[in-house]
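User: structure tokens for this one?
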Amino acid sequence: MTSMASPSYHMLASFTMRSEPGNERLALAQVAEAVAGQGLSAARLERLKTAVAEAAMNAIEHGNKNQPEVPVDVEVMSSDGDIVVTITDQGGAPEEAGPGAEPDIARKLAGDQAPRGWGLFLIRHMVDAMDVTTEGTRHTVTLTMRAGAPAGQEGGRSEDHV
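Assistant:
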């Protein structure tokens, strides 16, 4: 597992899980436990858990093709009031990368766009920042949530809409 941990990052948790459907629940539970006491409101914690579950599900299904023996690595760090979660699979570059993959509800309802494909869109709107990188076969989604963001100061998103 390649770690982002450096002197400016404090490792809260690091774990590996099998690429089996349903293990996204394991990921969200372990991340929630790791960030307890880090200053996230209940609503922001739920947003982070949703993003982690979706990213883990994508890593299991799309990255590692549901091959249990191929691991998904998860790291949870804190730095200067930020919570950073990385989720890494072994699938290399995603098939639908780039702006063309942005879901369009009207096109989906019309059958012009596949009904699936909401994952990265949902993740991006649940956290304060999302970054996707690929190095060789390692595909990593990095989620950042500002722990101390006051209510209503979350990039225009309201805490009432989890």
